[in-house]
Amino acid sequence: MPRSNTLPPFWTLLGAGALGGVFASLLSQSGQGVRLMVRDSQRSRLHPTLDFTALDGSAHLLPIPRCFASDGATTRRLLVMTKAGQVVEALRPLQGILGREVPIVLLHNGMGIAEQVAELFPDNPLLVGVTSHGAMRGQHYSFRHTGKGETWIGPFNEAGRQHRHIADDLARALGQAEWDEQIQRRQWQKLAINCMINPLTALHRVKNGELSTPRFGDALTQLSVELADVMQAEGMEAGADELLRRALTVAELTADNHSSMLQDREAGRVTEIDAITGYLLARADHHGIAVPVNRSLFEAISQKAG
């Protein structure tokens, strides 16, 4: 059944960072209505279009409308792509405004955030996901798609199970997006890779590809052992050798990239260390598992941030 033109765009995307801008652009190019929800403080400096550079290098000016928390009542589907540490703060203004039937989709690095969102919006369908697309943000709403990756989403609560069709809509824009009832397994797999790549590259200020050199061999091996121990305690099938292989594969495939944590550090922004390594440490403490190398990286990045 065709959608009435009087209805707001099907997608409301919260978080106009690098990946959010790229996803908004891809959704728009696929013919799906999308709007960007931005902070009230940005009312005076809104830009009418997004400057998007696709994977093939082609440039596009896309007229994607903006909206604000006050427009939350007209939101039909909310895709949240802020940094992990900003998710709760960004969603809080929507309490009492966002309809209870509106599905909330969380796409961010790390874990432990969905539990907090579920407390804020206990009745809403809640979905979580992981994506490996690459993106960069320039000035004045300029975004570049730097790498095509995989995207998986799944239910965080029972109500979320009724919205598996969201994966199909994302696939229309991304080329691939799939539903996984056991999405926690994929979250842990990505968390493990992030725990190995992000803190090391951020601390030593190196590109991802540098991790494949002998300099980082011992640290990566120890990290993979610690991660496997915690994941097994969490009920996940995980072997240290396989985790190490996956991390090295990602590092090699993204050899020229600066990790998001390194980019945040270089820009003086708050990193996602709390939602990545911090979450691992919390689960390790819960199970009484020692993770000294992960802990030392967490402390080093946290101190640098301070």
Automatic annotation (TrEMBL):
Keywords: NADP, Oxidoreductase, Pantothenate biosynthesis. Pathway: Cofactor biosynthesis; (R)-pantothenate biosynthesis; (R)-pantoate from 3-methyl-2-oxobutanoate: step 2/2. Its EC number is 1.1.1.169. InterPro entries: 6-PGluconate_DH-like_C_sf, 6PGD_dom2, ApbA, Ketopantoate_reductase, KPA_reductase, KPR_N, NAD(P)-bd_dom_sf. Catalyzes the NADPH-dependent reduction of ketopantoate into pantoic acid. Belongs to the ketopantoate reductase family. This is 2-dehydropantoate 2-reductase. It comes from Aeromonas schubertii. The lineage of its organism: Bacteria, Pseudomonadati, Pseudomonadota, Gammaproteobacteria, Aeromonadales.
